[in-house]
Amino acid sequence: EVQLVESGGGMVQPGGSLRLSCAASGFIFSSYDMRWVRQAPGKGPEWVSIISSDGGRTYYTGSVKGRFTISRDNAKDTLYLQMYDLKPEDTALYYCAKGPTTRRLGQGTQVTVSS
User: How far apart are the C-alpha atoms of 55 and 27, rounded to whole Å?
Assistant: First the structure.
């Protein structure tokens, strides 16, 4: 059974930082591209960042370029998202996804940016 468990969210002030983690199990993690997706209240899911299976290629949606960094540790079956200079518009439920999908399998982790 595929399991994705996100953690690391919280409430921060604008300009703050957070590091999200996604622990994967139930599949060969190193064989799949992974992505971070977020969903703000009342909006549809939006992919935030994508990383290739070997970590060699990364992609970011325009609004987070230069502020977020995606990475992975295939030895630990874990995906990360380092977020800097957080803005109120980054407030959303963040979750990781296996492959080319925005479907949420886990609980996600809430990120709230507010002063």
Answer: 17
Q: Using an 8 Å Cβ cutoff, are 84 and 17 in contact?
A: yes
Closest CA to 50 of 68, 65, 32, 70: 70
- 12: phi then psi, degrees, rounded to nearest 5: -135, 160
HEC per residue, 46-71: EEEEEECCCCCCEEECHHHCCCEEEE
Query: How far apart (Å, rounded) are the C-alpha atoms in residues 19 and 24?
Result: 16
How does pLDDT run across 66-96, given as a tens digit for each residue? 999 999 999 999 999 999 999 999 999 999 9
Taking CA 10 as the corner, what is the angle to CA 37 and CA 77, rounded to the nearest 5 degrees? 50
- Cα dihedral sign for 69, 97, 62, 59? positive
Residue 43 pLDDT: 96
Question: Can you point out the beta strands (E) in the chain?
Answer: 3-7, 10-12, 18-25, 34-39, 46-51, 58-60, 68-73, 78-83, 92-98, 109-113
